[in-house]
Amino acid sequence: MENFFSKVKNYVAALDYDILYENMADGIIVIDKQENGIRNMVLGVANPILIVEQYLFDCTDDLVYKELLIKNRDIVHGAFVLDETGKKSFLEIHFR
Fold this sequence. Notes:
The protein has 2 helices and 6 strands, in the order H-E-E-E-E-H-E-E. The protein is of the alpha+beta class and 96 residues long. The chain has a single domain, classed as Yope Regulator, Chain: A (2-Layer Sandwich). It has a 6-stranded antiparallel β-sheet. It is globular. It starts with a helix and ends with a strand. Pfam families: CesT_Tir_1 (PF22550).
């Protein structure tokens, strides 16, 4: 995993993103580049898969849940997901 983790980390650095946190043992990198709309984006590095998770907004309306589920049909390699509280919405994409 070290090589894949390093490859992802080097790619992020080459794109000039700020690395806010990294933990190779857990396969986690948190990046930021606010001028591109990226804030606290979590990269889960699990060779051969890269999971990209970005917080979007807090859910407060049941209609939002329905719309997110409908929109999930259009996303091929990812999904809108909720945290354990059911209140925070994220977009999660898996690459292989």
